[in-house]
Amino acid sequence: MSQGAPVRSWSRRKQARPGEILDAALKVFAEKGFAAARMEDIAARAGVTKGTIYLYFPGKEEVFKTLAREYIGGTLADVAKKAAQYDGSLRDFLTVFFGMAGAVIIEGERTVLPKIIIAESGNFPELARFYREEVIDRAFAVMGGVIERAMDRGEVRRLQVRDVVRVIVAPLVMSIIWRTTFAPFDTEAFDYKRFFATHIEILFGGLAPEGNKS
Amino acid sequence: MSQGAPVRSWSRRKQARPGEILDAALKVFAEKGFAAARMEDIAARAGVTKGTIYLYFPGKEEVFKTLAREYIGGTLADVAKKAAQYDGSLRDFLTVFFGMAGAVIIEGERTVLPKIIIAESGNFPELARFYREEVIDRAFAVMGGVIERAMDRGEVRRLQVRDVVRVIVAPLVMSIIWRTTFAPFDTEAFDYKRFFATHIEILFGGLAPEGNKS
Amino acid sequence: MSQGAPVRSWSRRKQARPGEILDAALKVFAEKGFAAARMEDIAARAGVTKGTIYLYFPGKEEVFKTLAREYIGGTLADVAKKAAQYDGSLRDFLTVFFGMAGAVIIEGERTVLPKIIIAESGNFPELARFYREEVIDRAFAVMGGVIERAMDRGEVRRLQVRDVVRVIVAPLVMSIIWRTTFAPFDTEAFDYKRFFATHIEILFGGLAPEGNKS
Amino acid sequence: MSQGAPVRSWSRRKQARPGEILDAALKVFAEKGFAAARMEDIAARAGVTKGTIYLYFPGKEEVFKTLAREYIGGTLADVAKKAAQYDGSLRDFLTVFFGMAGAVIIEGERTVLPKIIIAESGNFPELARFYREEVIDRAFAVMGGVIERAMDRGEVRRLQVRDVVRVIVAPLVMSIIWRTTFAPFDTEAFDYKRFFATHIEILFGGLAPEGNKS
DNA sequence: AATGAATGAGATTTCATTCAT
DNA sequence: GATGAATGAAATCTCATTCAT
Q: Any CB–CB contact under 8 A between B207 and chain A?
């Protein structure tokens, strides 16, 4: 504080505020949806008052949109880059992939965004489109590339790549929904890691017992 | 009321009204969510005026809850009963099951309810619980029974039943989400039937090429 | 009620409402200006509640604009038509004209509109322009025509018509301002009629005593 | 100020601040009215920030009132003194008077105050009263004195002095209104000097052609 | 002396709900 | 049974004012 930089303390605060507000908004929107979320709730959770939000955002809708846009880039770009360069086996790739995904879901903070997009797609179609194009289509393309290389390599058999991607990803989607919607009513904690392990097991071995492949 | 009195035609109308309102409400809630749905929208879509809704329901919340409760029983009970008695092969069962599911998704009318539950689980946790207990847990139990019998029969290998159910069901959940959220932005129509076929193929054969089972 | 016309009473009310609201708004806007006028004030004066205004107008600004547009046409069109056809002496014309104007000012209801336009010209320049073009320019043109004919006839001497119109009209403008701004503080009522008579006397006789014309 | 003491520049600045703020406020109030004028606008135009205004004035209302009171004294007192002592002809007096008035109107800076008073008379009746008593009544009294002496002298004929004052002043009032409200929409600049010349001409000669005095 | 981030009272606007017709 | 004009609580948003820096 008393070091060289003559940064006044409210100046540091000003830098941090938008982020604090977005963090608070993420939670409130995830909980109530866009329409039922009150600016006052968001403010309170961010530790400020209504008015303060308007110093940083022109209105509720822009808070929401900023949130949806902002929270995407970070996580995804890195993953995509690594995946695109990956050249090990598909099974190893998926093991690592679902390992990371499981951690994210268990932690639970960031999984609310997809839920928000799903819930508000009717009210903000442009956001759904944005998410679809910037996140989903890209992720599917990267995953599709990994699979295609596995097919070329002979690691897995040739099937419609588009469908295979979805079959692989579906349990992840389902887990996100589960976590944000039904998990609160679980009597015993659901074991996402074991679930993903079973998924991979079935993916690569099928359900049929050894030697009985249909 | 239950007497022999001659039923006049507007009386039949009266009987039909609540259903018409619920049909309208389903669409509006699916599109906008609970909070953003206006009673006037629902009324307009049902071909009546705002006031009329209050003749049949005490308020917006009750319309929503009735909707959520009402639309569940019908479809499911029958399916569950048939499934419980089913004793053919799992593969045949799933083929029929996903055939029906595909038809429902393509038609698209009834798939909005899960979306509503997901979107509003924060505002109506009791509904999410109800749906979870009455629909999901039951459906999972029925499906689990079918699988367990297949395991007993030696048709499929022994794995955690709970996880297997979810792996099987996940593409269905994903398709429902897709249909209600992202399908409007599809450049070419997504082929749900082929997707489900690929899913079953992978389930029973795995991804690995013949003879390479890991 | 039981007469021929099946007009339900709230139906009659609905017809009358917009007018009642505009009447109320005229008074409140004249008193407080646009920004300081509260929708609740307008509603209260119209004998309704805030919400009702929004059944008839999309918002405060539209109430204001409707008011400004609506209240103009009626009075002016008739006067203009008569004036354009008038072919008596200018002096008689002005005597009648200021007689009517005096009555309007004393009554005081309609003089608030010009004041509103003046006060809000900064916030609603498009209204000031509208008023200028539709009211003032037209009125000046009509008056200019009457004067020109009087010059042609030799009743009055040739001077810049544009300026003469303004000299003639100025005391009227001043009276309107006076009435809406300073009259409340008059210790004795100002006699607009005598003022206008003096004005006409000076117009036609000049200030100089008989025989001393400069 | 005119002393020998070395005046540091920020000290001079401090003295100047209230004046700079009032200058800025005058323009903003004239443009938007009291209620719609934002402290931030005034601050920005004065080249300071909101907070600074509160170092010199207790609040918005006081800025407004100070403005209204302050800007009156200066100009008027001098004029009044000169006019009271004036003993030339009325015509010469008015020629000089309107010459100065024309310059003030064309320059346009100071004419906004009357407009402000008119616009806000409803919200600040005490200001309207103050203006009426301190400015208008005094000005009318001075002008009335000049006219009365002209009547005594036989320069002009005997008419109600009160009305004559208003007839004389009306074109000035009108020009002030015009300038602040409608002039922005002029296609060609209005010539206030010629207008005033025509006014004086009519005042002293009447409208009637030579020898036809009615 | 000056700043500008933060506050919160108060305005506009929306819409579920009521009720006279 | 149905209507739709009217209500008023509750939300969003604005901006005069405060105060730590």
A: yes
- A64-106 pLDDT, tens digit per residue, is 999 988 877 666 777 788 888 888 899 999 999 999 999 999 9
For the domain made up of C70-205, the CATH class stated in words is mainly alpha
Residues 6+ apart with CB under 8 A from D105: D111, D172, D175, D176, D179, D192
Which long-range contacts (C-beta less than 8 Å, at least 24 apart) are formed by C156-162?
C156/C90, C156/D207, C156/D208, C156/D209, C157/D207, C157/D208, C157/D209, C157/D210, C159/D198, C159/D201, C159/D202, C159/D207, C160/D194, C160/D198
User: CA B46 → CA A81, B24, B43, distances in Å?
Assistant: 50, 5, 5
* For range C132-159, the mean pLDDT: 92
Q: Tell if the CB–CB gap between D128 and C167 is shorter than 8 Å.
A: no
CA–CA distance, D137 with C197 (Å, rounded to integer): 22
Structure tokens at A139: 């992720």
* Torsion angle of C-alpha atoms D48, D49, D54, D57, degrees rounded to 10: 40
CB within 8 Å: C156 and D115: no
- How far is C-alpha D142 from the chain's CA centre? 15
Subunits in contact with chain B (3 or more CB pairs closer than 8 Å): A
| Residue A126 in contact with partner chain B when CB distance is under 8 A | no
DSSP H/E element including A154: none
Q: Please name the CATH architecture into which domain B8-57 falls.
A: Orthogonal Bundle (1.10)
CATH of D64-205 among 3.30.160, 3.30.420, 1.10.3470, 1.10.357: 1.10.357
Confirm or reject contact between A102 and chain B (CB < 8 A): no
| More confidently predicted of B45 and D5 | B45
The domain at A71-205 falls in which architecture? Orthogonal Bundle (1.10)
> A31 CA to E19 C1', in Å?
36
Checking if the pLDDT of D13 tops 90, the result is no
pLDDT in the model for residue C74:
61
Whether the Cβ atoms of residue B198 and residue A199 lie closer than 8 Å to each other: no
Gap between the Cα atoms of B70 and C150, Å rounded = 85
pLDDT in tens, B159-205: 999 999 999 999 999 999 999 999 999 999 999 999 999 999 999 99
Which superfamily, per CATH, for C1-57? Answer: Homeodomain-like (1.10.10.60)
pTM: 0.87
**Closest protein residue to F9 using CA and C1' atoms?**
C51
Q: Which of residues 40-59 of C touch strand F (CB under 7 A)?
A: 48-52, 54-55
Q: In angstroms, how far is E20 C1' from C64 CA?
A: 31
**Helices A161-177 and B161-177, interaxial angle, to 10°?**
100
CATH class, range D7-57: mainly alpha
| Dist. CA D134–CA D137, nearest whole Å | 6
Domain residue limits, chain C: 1-57, 70-205
DSSP labels, C31-77: HH-TTT--HHHHHHHHTS-HHHHHHH-SSHHHHHHHHHHHHHHHHHH
For the domain spanning B67-205, the CATH number is: 1.10.357
Amino acid at D116: I
Q: What angle do CA D43, D45, D50 make, to 5 degrees?
A: 10
Cβ-defined contact of B123 to A157 (cutoff 8 Å):
no
pLDDT at A36 over 50: yes
- D210: tokens are 């030579």
Using an 8 Å Cβ cutoff, are D208 and D214 in contact? yes
For chain A, what is the radius of gyration of the CA atoms? 21
* Amino acid at site D66: T
Q: Does D117 touch chain C (CB under 8 A)?
A: yes
CA gap A66, B203 in Å, rounded: 40
